[in-house]
Amino acid sequence: MAKADSATRLSLNSSIDFLLLLRLLVLLLPLICGASNQPNIEGEALIEFLTALKDSNEKIKDWDSHFVSPCFSWSHVTCINGSVVSLSFPSIGFTGTLSPSITRLKFLVSLDLQHNSLSGGLPDSLSSMSNLQNLNLAHNNFNGSIPSSWGRLSNLKHLVVRGNHLSGSIPESLVNVTGLIELDLSSNDFTGKIPQQLFSIPTFNFTATHLTCDNNLKQPCISSSSVPVSKRNSKVQILVTIASVGAFSLLLLGAFFGYRFHRVHKLKQDVFVDVAGEDECKISFGQIRRFSFREMQLSTDNFSESNIIGQGGYGKVYRGVLVDNTRVAVKRLMDYHSPGGEAAFMREVHLISIAVHKNLLRLIGFCTTSTERILVYPFMQNLSVAYRLRDLKPGEKGLDWPTRKRIAFGTAHGLEYLHEHCEPKIIHRDMKAANILLNDEFEAVLGDFGLAKLVDAKVTHVTTQVRGTMGHIAPEYLSTGKSSEKTDVFGYGITLLELVTGQRAIDFSRLEEEEDVLLLDHIKKLLREKRIEDILDGNLKNYEGKEVETILQVAMLCTQSSPEDRPRMAEVVSMLEGVGLAERWAEWEHLEQVRIQEFSIMPHKFLWGEDSTHDQEAIQLSQAR
Q: Per residue in 571-619, pLDDT tens?
């Protein structure tokens, strides 16, 4: 018995140690990231960069020069391992210049400034950005020539400067950028001859310029989609040969399409996609449709910024309309270089497509190219739970208590299906109110499930390699990077607190009044003080007290620090209906009293330095036991 008590005490101490460390980390983040004596180099560079861009419309409001941590919460910024790798500012309305301070972002891979009103010359200093792969400056007012030093951008793959006022000749040094797969210099004032080697680039566009192929050819319109320019002394025999080959090819094509029609008809409209592999397996997608990239462009007005309805760690979501007038949501994944390439993407799309449940977002189709991964879903006109809780516009309908209760039940059923009834099971990994969509009847429809396996898990908007959102991430996932269905249970518990309070999972504004910036800590404090009325969302006018109590109790059980203590989603569904909740809640209250007593007798001493091993101990002790 003494050994059991000792083991229990060690487990509690371990959990308390980790939670204390986590809370201290959250509290110190503004100080660590914003300390004036050790400023963030990339943060300072971005502030200078933004100043030069002249954001006169004040579209970028969340960049704070006193909190220079761009990887924590700044919009339009993507980070990997705490370093800025991508900046995306299309159609923002910038009117300034491109500052050389951008070169201090040593790990920058992608810079997108298309469709602004930037002017001035192209900085010669960009040549030092050895990791740059994508540079899109299209449709601005840049002038001058392309710096010859840009030939040193050895990793550059996409260079797009169309629609500017650039002049001069194409620098010969560009032929040294052997990895280019796209070069678009169209609609500029370039003159001179196009280096012959540039015609080997897969996609090029020199139209609407004054460039020529050689001294005898004066056509200014040349692109990889144009009919190739041929010499005028072609032999008649060549034409005859081409005609013969063409006729034979037509016969082969006719036979091929006849065979394909027969096969498709025989398979009763089932769509099959061949996936390269050792078994040459075939993946059946049933009614899932494969769209062309052109269809996606047309449906979203070429991915117009005005059609964006959501944006997060996985990419951007656009409002779209298909040719049959079906309204859709088009999710353009940010990291298309998923492990395993296209075959892996296909398998994961198949995994998502077979998860069919009324509380899960149905996949309509997908699009995949060498550089794109796109998913197509039904459009949800009532948007997300997060929007209805916190971002309503005047006159729009909020969420009453019966609707919030129905959302809690629907989301639980959806997660239970993913965990218990899918083979293999699907773990969401980013459970939050923003990922719960609402259909026409305001029923919960869980979206973004399975996406964590579709993209590289290293790409994230938080500074760890964990996929998720601060405040919703379970302690064991944050410390070890290992997720399970219990990770989703923790996120679901935080989501229940969002539903009851209407608040965000993490809110630094609470620092002004108290120490609890985490919603979970804030609610625990109010529960201890019996201040239930202070927990409820002020927008709730009518509610059932007993039902609110049930939701809060389930939330507390789901957000316990140890994953072994959390219920499975099947148990959560039962407890929401009142089955087995009383017993579990009594156990929780007893443990909570023990935790409080343990905390009160602990020495309040923290070691925080380069030699400290406190964080490593917390990581080890928080693993499964």
A: 999 999 888 888 888 888 888 777 766 655 544 433 333 233 233 222 2
pLDDT given at position 617? 27
Total tally of structural domains belonging to the chain: 3
Residue 361: pLDDT band (50, 70, 90) is confident
Instruction: Enumerate the H helices of 449-580 as residue ranges.
Output: 475-480, 485-501, 519-528, 532-535, 545-558, 569-576
Element (H, E) at 26: helix 2-34
Choosing from 112, 335, 430, 448, which is the catalytic residue? 430
- Cα dist from 367 to 336, 370, 375, whole Å: 11, 10, 6
Cβ–Cβ < 8 Å for 467, 429: yes
Closest CA to 360 of 477, 485, 444, 292: 444
**Whether residue 354 is found in the same domain as residue 407:** no
**DSSP conformation class of 510:** G
Share of the chain residues as helix, strand and coil, in percent rounded to the nearest 5? 40, 15, 45
Same domain, 190 and 66: yes
Q: List Cα–Cα distances, 189 to 55, 112, 224, in angstroms.
A: 28, 22, 19
The pLDDT > 90 percentage for the chain reads 28
- Per the structure, the complete domain to which residue 309 belongs is given by 282-378
Q: List pLDDT tens digits, range 472-507.
A: 788 887 777 777 889 899 999 999 999 998 888 887
Going by their DSSP bridges, the two strands 315-321 and 308-312 should be labelled as antiparallel
pLDDT for 469 beyond 80: no
Q: What residues form DSSP beta bridges with 110? A: 86, 134
* pLDDT tens by residue, 14-47: 454 555 555 545 444 444 443 333 347 888 889 8
- Most confident segment among 19-23, 272-276, 415-419: 415-419
Is residue 537 situated within a structural domain? Answer: yes
Q: Could you tell me which of 39, 43, 51 has the C-alpha nearest to residue 70?
A: 43
Using only C-alpha atoms, the chain has a radius of gyration, in whole angstroms, of 29
One domain, residues 407 and 303? no
Cβ burial 353-377 (10 Å sphere, 16+ → b, else e): bebebebbbbbbbbbbeeeebbbbb
Name residue 224's amino acid: S
Residue 15 lies in a domain: no
Tell me the β-bridge partners of 282.
Answer: 274
**301 assigned to active site:** no
pLDDT at 450: 64
Please tell me the distance from the alpha carbon of residue 350 to that of residue 517, in angstroms, as a whole number: 40
Indicate yes or no: pTM above 0.70. Answer: no
Residue 101 CA to residue 83 CA, distance in Å, equals: 15
**429 in the same domain as 550:** yes
